[in-house]
Amino acid sequence: MANIHSISLGCPKNRVDTENLLGSLSGVTSTADPARADCIFINTCGFIAPAVQESIRTILECAADKEEAPAAKRPLLVVAGCLVGRYGEAELAPDLPEVDLWLDTRDIAAWPEKLSQALGLPAPAPGPGRRLLSTPPSYAWLKISEGCNHRCSFCTIPVIRGPLASRPAADIIADAAALLSQGVKELVVVAQDTTAWGKERAAASRDDIRTLLDDLLPLQGLERLRLLYLYPAGLTRDLLTYLQAAGPPFVPYFDIPLQHAHPDILRAMGRPFALDPRPVIERVREFFPQAALRTTFITGFPGETEEAFQNLYDFISEVRFQHLGVFAYQAEEGTAAAALPGQIPETIKESRRETLMLLQQEISEELLAPLLGRRLPILVDSPHPEWPGLHTGRAWFQAPEIDGVTCISGPGVAPGALVEAEITETKEYDLVALV
Predict the structure, then answer these.
(1) Which string of b and e fits 86-100 if b means at least 16 CB within 10 Å?
(2) Domains of the chain
(3) Which terminus of the chain has a smaller tally of CB atoms within 10 A, N or C?
(4) pTM for the whole thing?
(5) Per-residue pLDDT tens for 7-27?
(6) Is 87 helix (H, G, I), strand (E, B) or coil?
Protein backbone atom coordinates (compact mmCIF):
# COMPACT_ATOMS: atom_id res chain seq x y z
CA MET A 1 0.00 0.00 0.00
CA ALA A 2 1.07 3.57 -0.67
CA ASN A 3 -0.43 6.87 0.45
CA ILE A 4 -0.51 9.53 -2.27
CA HIS A 5 -0.99 13.24 -1.67
CA SER A 6 -2.03 14.86 -4.96
CA ILE A 7 -2.07 18.49 -6.05
CA SER A 8 -3.72 19.39 -9.36
CA LEU A 9 -3.08 22.89 -10.70
CA GLY A 10 -4.66 24.66 -13.65
CA CYS A 11 -7.69 23.62 -15.66
CA PRO A 12 -10.28 20.85 -15.19
CA LYS A 13 -8.57 18.81 -17.90
CA ASN A 14 -5.58 18.49 -15.58
CA ARG A 15 -7.91 17.44 -12.79
CA VAL A 16 -9.28 14.62 -14.95
CA ASP A 17 -5.74 13.42 -15.68
CA THR A 18 -5.01 13.31 -11.95
CA GLU A 19 -8.26 11.50 -11.15
CA ASN A 20 -7.63 8.94 -13.90
CA LEU A 21 -4.11 8.30 -12.68
CA LEU A 22 -5.12 7.79 -9.04
CA GLY A 23 -8.05 5.59 -10.03
CA SER A 24 -5.88 3.34 -12.19
CA LEU A 25 -3.26 2.58 -9.54
CA SER A 26 -3.49 -0.61 -7.51
CA GLY A 27 -2.75 -0.59 -3.80
CA VAL A 28 -2.94 3.15 -3.12
CA THR A 29 -4.95 5.43 -0.89
CA SER A 30 -5.32 9.17 -1.18
CA THR A 31 -4.33 11.39 1.73
CA ALA A 32 -4.89 15.09 2.31
CA ASP A 33 -1.91 15.19 4.67
CA PRO A 34 1.44 15.40 2.84
CA ALA A 35 3.23 14.39 6.05
CA ARG A 36 1.58 10.94 5.79
CA ALA A 37 2.31 10.52 2.11
CA ASP A 38 4.60 7.98 0.49
CA CYS A 39 4.27 9.98 -2.70
CA ILE A 40 3.53 13.63 -3.44
CA PHE A 41 2.11 13.99 -6.96
CA ILE A 42 1.92 17.47 -8.51
CA ASN A 43 0.05 17.91 -11.80
CA THR A 44 1.31 21.27 -13.03
CA CYS A 45 0.02 24.02 -15.31
CA GLY A 46 2.35 25.75 -17.77
CA PHE A 47 -0.10 27.66 -19.96
CA ILE A 48 0.99 31.22 -19.04
CA ALA A 49 3.76 32.76 -16.95
CA PRO A 50 1.74 33.13 -13.70
CA ALA A 51 0.73 29.46 -13.94
CA VAL A 52 4.37 28.46 -14.48
CA GLN A 53 5.37 30.49 -11.44
CA GLU A 54 2.65 28.86 -9.33
CA SER A 55 3.78 25.42 -10.46
CA ILE A 56 7.43 26.11 -9.63
CA ARG A 57 6.46 27.58 -6.25
CA THR A 58 4.37 24.50 -5.42
CA ILE A 59 7.19 22.14 -6.40
CA LEU A 60 9.68 24.06 -4.24
CA GLU A 61 7.32 24.03 -1.25
CA CYS A 62 6.79 20.27 -1.56
CA ALA A 63 10.52 19.72 -2.07
CA ALA A 64 11.22 21.62 1.15
CA ASP A 65 8.68 19.45 3.01
CA LYS A 66 10.31 16.35 1.57
CA GLU A 67 13.80 17.39 2.69
CA GLU A 68 12.56 18.06 6.22
CA ALA A 69 11.24 14.52 6.61
CA PRO A 70 13.50 11.79 8.06
CA ALA A 71 15.59 10.21 5.30
CA ALA A 72 13.81 6.84 5.67
CA LYS A 73 10.37 8.44 5.33
CA ARG A 74 10.91 10.96 2.56
CA PRO A 75 8.09 10.74 0.01
CA LEU A 76 8.62 10.22 -3.68
CA LEU A 77 8.17 13.62 -5.35
CA VAL A 78 6.51 13.31 -8.76
CA VAL A 79 5.92 16.22 -11.12
CA ALA A 80 3.63 15.81 -14.11
CA GLY A 81 1.59 17.88 -16.52
CA CYS A 82 1.88 20.94 -18.66
CA LEU A 83 5.02 22.42 -17.10
CA VAL A 84 6.84 19.22 -18.07
CA GLY A 85 5.18 19.20 -21.49
CA ARG A 86 6.24 22.76 -22.17
CA TYR A 87 9.86 22.74 -20.93
CA GLY A 88 10.80 19.09 -20.71
CA GLU A 89 12.62 17.10 -18.04
CA ALA A 90 16.05 17.95 -19.50
CA GLU A 91 15.52 21.65 -18.88
CA LEU A 92 13.71 21.38 -15.53
CA ALA A 93 15.57 18.61 -13.72
CA PRO A 94 18.93 20.35 -13.16
CA ASP A 95 17.24 23.14 -11.19
CA LEU A 96 14.90 20.80 -9.31
CA PRO A 97 17.01 17.80 -8.22
CA GLU A 98 14.53 16.98 -5.41
CA VAL A 99 12.03 15.71 -8.02
CA ASP A 100 12.23 11.92 -8.33
CA LEU A 101 10.01 11.37 -11.38
CA TRP A 102 8.90 13.57 -14.28
CA LEU A 103 5.77 12.72 -16.29
CA ASP A 104 5.16 14.43 -19.65
CA THR A 105 1.70 15.39 -20.94
CA ARG A 106 2.48 13.80 -24.31
CA ASP A 107 2.85 10.43 -22.60
CA ILE A 108 -0.19 10.42 -20.30
CA ALA A 109 -1.09 6.81 -21.13
CA ALA A 110 2.19 5.69 -19.58
CA TRP A 111 1.80 7.64 -16.31
CA PRO A 112 0.17 4.80 -14.29
CA GLU A 113 2.82 2.26 -15.25
CA LYS A 114 5.74 4.62 -14.59
CA LEU A 115 4.39 5.69 -11.20
CA SER A 116 3.53 2.12 -10.20
CA GLN A 117 7.06 1.03 -10.98
CA ALA A 118 8.55 3.94 -9.05
CA LEU A 119 6.44 3.05 -5.99
CA GLY A 120 6.91 -0.69 -6.30
CA LEU A 121 3.18 -1.24 -6.76
CA PRO A 122 1.32 -3.92 -8.75
CA ALA A 123 0.63 -3.24 -12.42
CA PRO A 124 -2.06 -0.58 -12.92
CA ALA A 125 -5.63 -1.53 -13.81
CA PRO A 126 -6.34 -0.74 -17.48
CA GLY A 127 -9.48 0.65 -19.09
CA PRO A 128 -11.75 3.71 -18.88
CA GLY A 129 -14.19 4.44 -16.12
CA ARG A 130 -11.67 4.08 -13.29
CA ARG A 131 -11.34 7.46 -11.59
CA LEU A 132 -10.83 8.69 -8.07
CA LEU A 133 -13.12 11.72 -8.05
CA SER A 134 -11.98 14.90 -6.34
CA THR A 135 -15.11 16.91 -7.15
CA PRO A 136 -18.28 17.07 -5.02
CA PRO A 137 -20.79 14.25 -5.61
CA SER A 138 -22.97 16.49 -7.78
CA TYR A 139 -20.76 16.88 -10.86
CA ALA A 140 -17.71 15.54 -12.68
CA TRP A 141 -15.54 16.69 -15.57
CA LEU A 142 -15.66 14.58 -18.75
CA LYS A 143 -12.61 15.13 -20.98
CA ILE A 144 -13.22 14.09 -24.57
CA SER A 145 -9.97 14.97 -26.32
CA GLU A 146 -6.36 16.05 -25.98
CA GLY A 147 -4.49 18.81 -27.79
CA CYS A 148 -5.58 21.33 -30.40
CA ASN A 149 -5.18 21.87 -34.14
CA HIS A 150 -5.71 25.64 -33.98
CA ARG A 151 -2.68 27.90 -34.05
CA CYS A 152 -3.68 31.03 -32.16
CA SER A 153 -0.66 33.31 -31.99
CA PHE A 154 -0.78 33.72 -28.19
CA CYS A 155 -1.37 30.10 -27.18
CA THR A 156 1.10 27.47 -25.94
CA ILE A 157 -1.33 24.55 -25.85
CA PRO A 158 -0.34 22.92 -29.19
CA VAL A 159 3.28 22.85 -27.99
CA ILE A 160 2.34 21.47 -24.57
CA ARG A 161 -0.44 19.05 -25.47
CA GLY A 162 0.20 18.41 -29.15
CA PRO A 163 -2.36 18.19 -31.97
CA LEU A 164 -6.00 17.21 -31.56
CA ALA A 165 -6.43 13.62 -30.42
CA SER A 166 -10.06 12.69 -29.75
CA ARG A 167 -10.77 9.98 -27.20
CA PRO A 168 -12.66 6.97 -28.60
CA ALA A 169 -16.41 7.36 -28.16
CA ALA A 170 -16.71 4.00 -26.41
CA ASP A 171 -14.17 5.06 -23.76
CA ILE A 172 -15.96 8.37 -23.18
CA ILE A 173 -19.33 6.67 -22.79
CA ALA A 174 -17.88 4.07 -20.40
CA ASP A 175 -16.32 6.87 -18.36
CA ALA A 176 -19.60 8.81 -18.28
CA ALA A 177 -21.67 5.76 -17.31
CA ALA A 178 -19.26 4.94 -14.48
CA LEU A 179 -19.49 8.49 -13.15
CA LEU A 180 -23.29 8.47 -13.26
CA SER A 181 -23.37 5.09 -11.49
CA GLN A 182 -21.62 6.82 -8.56
CA GLY A 183 -24.51 9.27 -8.26
CA VAL A 184 -23.05 12.16 -10.24
CA LYS A 185 -25.87 14.22 -11.74
CA GLU A 186 -24.04 16.72 -13.95
CA LEU A 187 -21.36 15.94 -16.51
CA VAL A 188 -19.28 18.88 -17.69
CA VAL A 189 -17.71 18.12 -21.06
CA VAL A 190 -14.26 19.66 -21.54
CA ALA A 191 -11.61 19.74 -24.25
CA GLN A 192 -9.41 22.41 -25.74
CA ASP A 193 -12.09 22.73 -28.43
CA THR A 194 -15.16 20.64 -27.65
CA THR A 195 -16.74 21.23 -31.05
CA ALA A 196 -13.69 19.70 -32.78
CA TRP A 197 -14.13 16.21 -31.29
CA GLY A 198 -13.62 13.56 -33.99
CA LYS A 199 -12.59 15.98 -36.72
CA GLU A 200 -9.06 14.57 -37.09
CA ARG A 201 -10.75 11.29 -38.09
CA ALA A 202 -13.14 12.93 -40.55
CA ALA A 203 -11.64 11.20 -43.56
CA ALA A 204 -12.12 7.77 -42.00
CA SER A 205 -15.45 8.23 -40.19
CA ARG A 206 -18.50 10.42 -39.83
CA ASP A 207 -17.80 11.10 -36.18
CA ASP A 208 -18.41 14.58 -34.85
CA ILE A 209 -19.64 15.96 -31.54
CA ARG A 210 -23.24 15.14 -32.49
CA THR A 211 -22.55 11.42 -32.78
CA LEU A 212 -20.94 11.50 -29.35
CA LEU A 213 -23.89 13.40 -27.85
CA ASP A 214 -26.27 10.84 -29.36
CA ASP A 215 -24.80 8.32 -26.91
CA LEU A 216 -24.22 10.67 -23.97
CA LEU A 217 -27.60 12.39 -23.68
CA PRO A 218 -29.74 9.24 -23.06
CA LEU A 219 -27.53 7.91 -20.24
CA GLN A 220 -29.51 6.94 -17.15
CA GLY A 221 -29.12 9.30 -14.20
CA LEU A 222 -27.88 12.26 -16.24
CA GLU A 223 -29.66 15.43 -15.10
CA ARG A 224 -27.40 18.02 -16.73
CA LEU A 225 -24.95 17.86 -19.61
CA ARG A 226 -22.88 21.03 -19.91
CA LEU A 227 -20.48 21.72 -22.78
CA LEU A 228 -17.50 24.00 -22.15
CA TYR A 229 -14.91 25.45 -24.57
CA LEU A 230 -17.13 25.76 -27.64
CA TYR A 231 -14.96 27.25 -30.36
CA PRO A 232 -16.84 30.01 -32.24
CA ALA A 233 -16.26 28.48 -35.67
CA GLY A 234 -17.67 25.16 -34.43
CA LEU A 235 -21.05 26.60 -33.45
CA THR A 236 -22.61 25.99 -36.84
CA ARG A 237 -26.31 26.12 -37.63
CA ASP A 238 -26.26 22.33 -37.99
CA LEU A 239 -24.90 21.86 -34.46
CA LEU A 240 -27.29 24.41 -32.96
CA THR A 241 -30.22 22.76 -34.73
CA TYR A 242 -29.15 19.44 -33.23
CA LEU A 243 -28.80 20.88 -29.71
CA GLN A 244 -32.16 22.64 -29.95
CA ALA A 245 -33.87 19.36 -30.86
CA ALA A 246 -31.96 17.44 -28.18
CA GLY A 247 -33.46 19.33 -25.24
CA PRO A 248 -32.73 18.28 -21.63
CA PRO A 249 -30.47 17.12 -20.14
CA PHE A 250 -28.46 19.41 -22.45
CA VAL A 251 -28.02 22.74 -20.67
CA PRO A 252 -28.28 25.84 -22.92
CA TYR A 253 -25.07 27.26 -21.50
CA PHE A 254 -22.63 28.39 -24.18
CA ASP A 255 -19.02 28.92 -23.17
CA ILE A 256 -17.51 30.58 -26.26
CA PRO A 257 -13.89 31.83 -25.91
CA LEU A 258 -13.97 34.89 -28.17
CA GLN A 259 -10.77 36.56 -26.84
CA HIS A 260 -11.52 39.95 -28.48
CA ALA A 261 -14.03 41.81 -30.62
CA HIS A 262 -11.91 44.11 -32.82
CA PRO A 263 -11.07 42.66 -36.29
CA ASP A 264 -7.45 43.86 -36.27
CA ILE A 265 -6.78 42.19 -32.92
CA LEU A 266 -8.59 38.99 -33.88
CA ARG A 267 -6.54 38.86 -37.08
CA ALA A 268 -3.29 39.31 -35.13
CA MET A 269 -4.43 36.60 -32.71
CA GLY A 270 -4.86 34.19 -35.61
CA ARG A 271 -8.40 33.37 -34.61
CA PRO A 272 -9.77 31.10 -37.38
CA PHE A 273 -13.26 32.54 -37.73
CA ALA A 274 -14.96 35.64 -39.14
CA LEU A 275 -13.44 38.80 -37.68
CA ASP A 276 -16.73 39.98 -36.19
CA PRO A 277 -17.92 37.84 -33.26
CA ARG A 278 -21.47 39.20 -33.40
CA PRO A 279 -22.81 36.65 -35.92
CA VAL A 280 -22.01 33.68 -33.67
CA ILE A 281 -23.70 35.35 -30.68
CA GLU A 282 -26.74 36.19 -32.79
CA ARG A 283 -26.84 32.64 -34.13
CA VAL A 284 -26.81 31.11 -30.65
CA ARG A 285 -29.55 33.46 -29.45
CA GLU A 286 -31.63 32.71 -32.53
CA PHE A 287 -31.78 29.04 -31.52
CA PHE A 288 -31.64 29.60 -27.74
CA PRO A 289 -33.12 32.99 -26.75
CA GLN A 290 -32.72 31.98 -23.08
CA ALA A 291 -29.08 30.91 -23.45
CA ALA A 292 -26.55 31.71 -20.75
CA LEU A 293 -23.48 33.04 -22.51
CA ARG A 294 -19.97 32.88 -21.10
CA THR A 295 -16.73 34.05 -22.72
CA THR A 296 -13.16 35.12 -22.06
CA PHE A 297 -11.30 38.16 -23.35
CA ILE A 298 -7.67 39.26 -23.41
CA THR A 299 -6.73 42.88 -22.76
CA GLY A 300 -3.49 44.49 -23.86
CA PHE A 301 -2.77 42.20 -26.80
CA PRO A 302 0.03 43.69 -28.97
CA GLY A 303 -1.36 46.50 -31.07
CA GLU A 304 -4.50 47.00 -28.97
CA THR A 305 -5.14 50.71 -29.40
CA GLU A 306 -7.53 52.78 -27.31
CA GLU A 307 -9.97 52.48 -30.20
CA ALA A 308 -9.69 48.69 -30.24
CA PHE A 309 -10.18 48.51 -26.49
CA GLN A 310 -13.23 50.80 -26.68
CA ASN A 311 -14.61 48.52 -29.39
CA LEU A 312 -14.27 45.58 -26.99
CA TYR A 313 -15.87 47.55 -24.14
CA ASP A 314 -18.82 48.51 -26.36
CA PHE A 315 -19.23 44.91 -27.53
CA ILE A 316 -19.46 43.64 -23.94
CA SER A 317 -21.98 46.38 -23.10
CA GLU A 318 -24.06 45.40 -26.12
CA VAL A 319 -24.03 41.59 -25.74
CA ARG A 320 -24.35 41.47 -21.92
CA PHE A 321 -22.76 38.10 -21.21
CA GLN A 322 -24.04 36.16 -18.22
CA HIS A 323 -20.45 35.31 -17.28
CA LEU A 324 -17.17 36.84 -18.35
CA GLY A 325 -13.49 36.22 -17.65
CA VAL A 326 -10.81 38.77 -18.55
CA PHE A 327 -7.06 38.16 -18.65
CA ALA A 328 -4.24 40.63 -19.15
CA TYR A 329 -2.12 39.48 -22.09
CA GLN A 330 1.03 37.50 -21.28
CA ALA A 331 3.85 37.44 -23.85
CA GLU A 332 4.66 33.75 -23.75
CA GLU A 333 8.05 32.53 -24.87
CA GLY A 334 7.87 30.66 -28.17
CA THR A 335 4.55 32.12 -29.32
CA ALA A 336 4.19 34.26 -32.43
CA ALA A 337 2.44 37.04 -30.50
CA ALA A 338 5.45 37.55 -28.21
CA ALA A 339 7.43 38.83 -31.20
CA LEU A 340 4.74 41.21 -32.48
CA PRO A 341 5.34 44.96 -32.43
CA GLY A 342 3.17 47.22 -30.30
CA GLN A 343 3.58 45.41 -26.96
CA ILE A 344 1.43 47.11 -24.30
CA PRO A 345 2.77 48.20 -20.88
CA GLU A 346 1.66 46.01 -17.97
CA THR A 347 -0.08 48.88 -16.20
CA ILE A 348 -2.30 49.53 -19.23
CA LYS A 349 -3.11 45.83 -19.69
CA GLU A 350 -4.17 45.54 -16.06
CA SER A 351 -6.11 48.82 -16.06
CA ARG A 352 -8.10 47.68 -19.09
CA ARG A 353 -8.76 44.31 -17.46
CA GLU A 354 -10.09 45.99 -14.32
CA THR A 355 -12.29 48.31 -16.40
CA LEU A 356 -13.93 45.35 -18.13
CA MET A 357 -14.44 43.44 -14.88
CA LEU A 358 -16.17 46.45 -13.31
CA LEU A 359 -18.44 46.62 -16.34
CA GLN A 360 -19.21 42.92 -16.08
CA GLN A 361 -19.94 43.23 -12.37
CA GLU A 362 -22.70 45.72 -13.16
CA ILE A 363 -24.07 43.55 -15.97
CA SER A 364 -24.09 40.41 -13.84
CA GLU A 365 -25.87 42.15 -10.98
CA GLU A 366 -28.53 43.48 -13.37
CA LEU A 367 -29.05 40.07 -14.99
CA LEU A 368 -29.48 38.31 -11.65
CA ALA A 369 -31.81 40.89 -10.04
CA PRO A 370 -35.01 39.73 -11.87
CA LEU A 371 -34.58 36.25 -10.39
CA LEU A 372 -35.59 37.47 -6.91
CA GLY A 373 -38.65 35.53 -5.75
CA ARG A 374 -38.45 32.91 -8.50
CA ARG A 375 -38.20 29.18 -7.84
CA LEU A 376 -35.36 27.38 -9.58
CA PRO A 377 -33.88 23.87 -9.52
CA ILE A 378 -30.58 24.03 -7.64
CA LEU A 379 -27.96 21.29 -7.78
CA VAL A 380 -26.27 21.17 -4.38
CA ASP A 381 -22.48 20.79 -4.46
CA SER A 382 -21.06 20.96 -0.94
CA PRO A 383 -21.41 22.40 2.57
CA HIS A 384 -20.52 26.07 2.85
CA PRO A 385 -16.96 26.33 4.18
CA GLU A 386 -17.86 29.03 6.73
CA TRP A 387 -21.55 28.79 7.63
CA PRO A 388 -22.89 25.59 9.27
CA GLY A 389 -26.20 24.47 7.78
CA LEU A 390 -25.61 26.40 4.56
CA HIS A 391 -24.58 24.75 1.29
CA THR A 392 -23.33 25.97 -2.06
CA GLY A 393 -25.01 24.87 -5.24
CA ARG A 394 -25.76 26.01 -8.75
CA ALA A 395 -28.65 26.95 -10.98
CA TRP A 396 -28.50 25.70 -14.57
CA PHE A 397 -26.71 28.84 -15.74
CA GLN A 398 -23.87 28.48 -13.22
CA ALA A 399 -20.98 26.22 -14.20
CA PRO A 400 -18.90 24.69 -11.41
CA GLU A 401 -15.74 26.41 -10.21
CA ILE A 402 -15.78 29.25 -12.76
CA ASP A 403 -19.09 31.07 -12.19
CA GLY A 404 -20.95 32.42 -9.20
CA VAL A 405 -22.76 30.08 -6.82
CA THR A 406 -26.14 29.75 -5.13
CA CYS A 407 -26.01 29.59 -1.33
CA ILE A 408 -28.87 27.38 -0.27
CA SER A 409 -30.43 25.98 2.91
CA GLY A 410 -33.55 24.12 3.95
CA PRO A 411 -35.02 20.60 4.09
CA GLY A 412 -33.44 18.06 1.76
CA VAL A 413 -30.38 20.18 1.03
CA ALA A 414 -27.34 17.88 0.89
CA PRO A 415 -24.40 17.37 -1.47
CA GLY A 416 -25.61 15.78 -4.68
CA ALA A 417 -29.28 16.70 -4.20
CA LEU A 418 -31.25 18.50 -6.92
CA VAL A 419 -33.86 20.63 -5.16
CA GLU A 420 -36.26 23.40 -6.07
CA ALA A 421 -35.74 26.58 -4.08
CA GLU A 422 -36.89 30.18 -3.96
CA ILE A 423 -34.32 32.88 -4.69
CA THR A 424 -34.38 35.14 -1.65
CA GLU A 425 -31.43 37.40 -2.47
CA THR A 426 -29.42 38.34 -5.55
CA LYS A 427 -25.88 39.71 -5.42
CA GLU A 428 -23.28 40.79 -7.95
CA TYR A 429 -22.40 37.24 -8.99
CA ASP A 430 -24.13 34.95 -6.48
CA LEU A 431 -27.63 33.99 -5.40
CA VAL A 432 -29.17 33.03 -2.04
CA ALA A 433 -31.99 30.46 -2.03
CA LEU A 434 -34.28 28.73 0.46
CA VAL A 435 -36.08 25.43 -0.06
Answers:
(1) bbeeeebeeeeeebe
(2) 2-119 (3.40.50.12160), 139-369 (3.80.30.20), 372-434 (2.40.50.140)
(3) N
(4) 0.94
(5) 999 999 999 999 999 999 988
(6) helix
